[in-house]
Design a protein that fits this description.
Number of helices: 7
CATH topology of the largest domain: Rossmann fold
Strand content: 5-15%
Largest sheet: 4 strands, parallel
CATH superfamily of the largest domain: NAD(P)-binding Rossmann-like Domain
Distance between the termini: 59 Å
């Protein structure tokens, strides 16, 4: 079944695709749902977009809802975030058929705070730092990385993350702050403080 055939028959279309712009892919998803594709949907069908905002052409979606091409839509991602107060998606005339939500699926405690990179954003942040910093830390000893240097480990709240022969302890949310302010290849983030490799 082709994409177009699926749209012709679906009662609910739930969008789960990456955002690929025309210059990034031979099969872009930017404005995948536009005037043409929305008109293919049944007038009783619902569109749910929780992938990326620009996958749906919002102007075309507003028109589809106003002119009843589809029954309704639910969005938690938008072309411009946060959704502007004057967005046509907020039009009271379509409010009963257009449900707007914040992107709150990531607000669960485990998703935000887990140090496991397979579960949480915090863990992914740490893993990203490790992946960037590891090649530059060969001159530093394992003991220095594990906190036997200048007593920097007092009051740590996060567990050790082991990778190869090195161990790292990183406290959040300082990792993101550090990446904004220093060259990540020259920085080690330790217990909320920044230490440049020397």
């Amino acid at each position: 079944m082709t994409f177009e055939e699926a749209l012709l028959h679906a009662d609910f279309v739930s969008v789960h695709v990456p955002l690929l712009r025309p210059d990034e892919s031979a099969t872009p998803t930017y404005h995948l749902f536009n005037e043409r594709t929305l008109k293919l949907m049944k007038p009783t069908a619902f569109l749910v977009n929780d992938s990326r905002g620009p996958v749906v052409d919002e102007a075309a979606l507003v028109r589809a809802l106003r002119e009843n091409w589809i029954a309704g839509a639910a969005l938690d991602v938008y072309e411009k975030e946060p959704l502007p107060a004057d967005s046509p998606l907020r039009d009271p005339a379509i409010a009963d058929r257009c449900r707007l939500f914040p992107h709150f699926a990531s607000a669960a405690r485990i998703t935000r705070l887990s140090t496991d990179p397979n579960k949480g954003m915090a863990g992914r942040c740490v893993q990203g730092l490790i992946d960037v910093l590891e090649p530059t830390m060969t001159a530093m000893s394992r003991n220095a990385l594990c906190g036997k240097q200048r007593g920097v480990w007092k009051g740590l709240e996060r567990p050790l993350l082991l990778r190869g022969q090195r161990c790292y302890r990183i406290k959040f949310p300082y990792a993101m702050w550090a990446l904004r302010w220093r060259d990540a290849t020259q920085l080690m983030v330790v217990s909320g403080k920044s230490f440049a490799n020397r």
